[in-house]
Write a structure and sequence with these properties.
Blueprint (H helix, E strand, L loop, with lengths): L3 E3 L7 E2 L7 E2 L4 E3 L8 E5 L5 H4 L1 H13 L3 E4 L14 H13 L3 E6 L15 H6 L3 E4 L4 H11 L4 E2 L3 H5 L7 H11 L6 E2 L5 E2 L17 E2 L4 E4 L1 E11 H6 L13 E5 L6 H13 L8 E5 L10 H11 L7 E5 L10 E2 L3 E6 L6 E4 L6
Helix pairs in contact: 9-10
Organism: Nonomuraea diastatica
Keywords: Carboxypeptidase, Hydrolase, Protease
GO molecular function, one term: carboxypeptidase activity
């Protein structure tokens, strides 16, 4: 199964070699095939073993996907458990290779993040992955995996919903998340304007013991511009903490001209955000990107309040002159829209007007 190659600005020279020893970067964006009802979704646990620890949540999520017309296939180690990961790094990397090599699997959804997806990077067979382009979807710690594969193969991976947190929701995946998923991943046409969700939640109900009701929600005022402006460029979405774990490695991407969308865990504090953004600035990355967008933060940490967030961002983003928008529907709060890597998008935060995110081209072929 071959993907469609889309031209774009060169990002370096690609040199393929043995596993974990590639140098250089992508030149062309490769579109994966669209996901259709009836297709098989492979489930991968690249880090945490929570798919094994929460069987009710796992079965509910798989049932939801099946009820919506998909077939679901778990990788051999996806439901394994250990001290904190779903099998060894070698087992998890082999799971990923099996799913990519299997022609009956159209898309791969990660079960959940964790802390250890970066253990797989030096074990990846990028030639195998490039020869079998397909959707790979996840967020949080999966940023490490998404970034390495995108950077080394050009494959249009996606920051988007995962099996346990989103598809295992009581009552089913939230409607906004599911509509955005289908509009972006099942349709080669551009998704165009990404509307804001009417409400959001970060309430955590302990899985398999108390997640038997709908979660409480907050009204969503929509995204807002800290620094007004407009920028168009390829998208790149990341969990900030995980992205920084790639600094100094061969998997650190060149994001020249990109629109950088960042999300953080619900536990992120103002001081932690300040420290991480300061490190990001010190890498020099902010000198190359065109715009920054932030997802919502955890309600209890107060970072969604402009009076708390603005001083942090103004200090940490010193020297960055592009647009900065906040409160996007991405990351650890729900619902979320899907963010395809490399897709051309437009972010506009003009004074006196609502912030808009528009997908200019499609994510799949």
């Amino acid at each position: 199964m071959r993907g469609s190659v889309v031209g774009g600005p060169a990002q370096g020279q690609e040199r393929r070699g043995r596993r974990g020893h590639l140098q250089g970067s992508i030149v062309k964006r490769v579109l994966p095939p669209a996901l259709r009802p009836g297709d098989t979704i492979g489930v991968l646990s690249p880090s945490s073993d929570e798919a094994a620890r929460y069987p009710r949540r796992r079965l509910r999520a798989a049932g939801f996907l099946r009820d919506h017309g998909y077939q679901v296939r778990f990788a051999p180690s996806a439901c394994s458990t250990g001290d904190y990961t779903a099998g060894s790094p070698e087992e998890r990397a082999e799971d990923l290779h099996r799913l990519f090599a299997d022609p009956s699997v159209t898309a791969i959804v990660t079960a959940i993040g964790g802390n250890n997806s970066n253990q797989l990077l030096d074990l990846l067979d990028f030639d195998l992955i490039a020869a079998n382009p397909k959707l790979l979807i996840g967020y949080s710690d999966v940023t490490a995996l998404l970034t390495a594969i995108w950077w080394r193969t050009g494959l249009g991976v996606v920051m988007g919903p995962q099996l346990l947190p989103q598809f295992g929701e009581y009552g089913g995946c939230l409607d906004y998340t599911m509509r955005a998923w289908r509009r972006t991943l099942e349709n080669p046409a551009p998704a165009e304007l990404i509307d804001a969700s009417p409400a959001w939640t970060d309430e955590f109900l302990p899985w398999d013991s108390a997640d038997d009701r709908a979660r409480a929600t907050h009204a969503n005022a929509g995204p807002w511009a800290l620094r007004p402006g407009r920028a168009t460029g390829p998208l790149y979405g990341a969990n900030l903490t995980t992205l920084l774990r790639l600094a100094g490695t061969p998997y650190w991407p060149d994001l020249t001209g990109h629109l950088l969308l960042l999300e953080s865990s619900l536990e992120t504090t103002p001081s932690q955000l300040d420290a991480e953004l300061t490190q990001l600035r010190q890498t020099g990355l902010l000198n190359t990107i065109s715009a920054i967008g932030f997802g919502r933060f955890g309600h209890e940490r107060r970072l969604n309040r402009p009076a708390v967030l603005e001083p942090v961002l103004n200090r940490a983003l010193t020297g960055f002159g592009g647009p900065v928008v906040c409160g996007l529907d991405i990351g650890h709060t729900d619902p979320m829209f899907s963010v395809p890597y490399g897709l051309t998008a437009d972010i506009a935060g003009e004074p006196g007007r609502p912030v808009t995110v528009t997908f200019v081209d499609g994510a799949v072929r």
